[in-house]
Design brief:
A two-stranded antiparallel ribbon has the order 1-2. It is extended and about 45 Å long. It has 2 domains: 44 residues, Pemi-like Protein 1, Chain: D (Ribbon); 37 residues. The protein is built from 3 helices and 2 strands; from the N terminus they run H-E-E-H-H. By secondary structure, it is of the alpha+beta class. Helices cover 35% and strands 15% of the residues.
Length: 81
């Protein structure tokens, strides 16, 4: 068990040893689940790895995960109309 401090903006610093153990990387994504008085943080696989080969891309973006998130948000927005 680790004890961490919450800053003024409500952010927690997850120790490097914990991030390495569960596979959370800088710029990556994590799922947050709230149960009564508990917060559960789960690591997520890279979106780029999950959808590898699903898209044909003429020019590769610098951050593939960020690009895929934007494409999916755009797709969801258009689908809801």
């Amino acid at each position: 068990m680790e004890v961490v401090k919450v800053d003024k903006k409500g952010r927690l610093l997850i120790p490097k040893s914990v991030r390495r153990k569960v596979g959370i990387k800088e710029g990556g994504f994590a799922k947050i689940e709230v149960n009564e008085k508990s917060i559960i943080i789960r690591s997520m696989d890279s979106i780029a790895d999950k959808y590898f080969g699903a898209f044909e891309i003429a020019k590769w973006p610098e951050d593939l995960d960020e690009f895929i998130v934007k494409v999916i948000k755009n797709w969801w927005t258009q689908k809801a109309i």
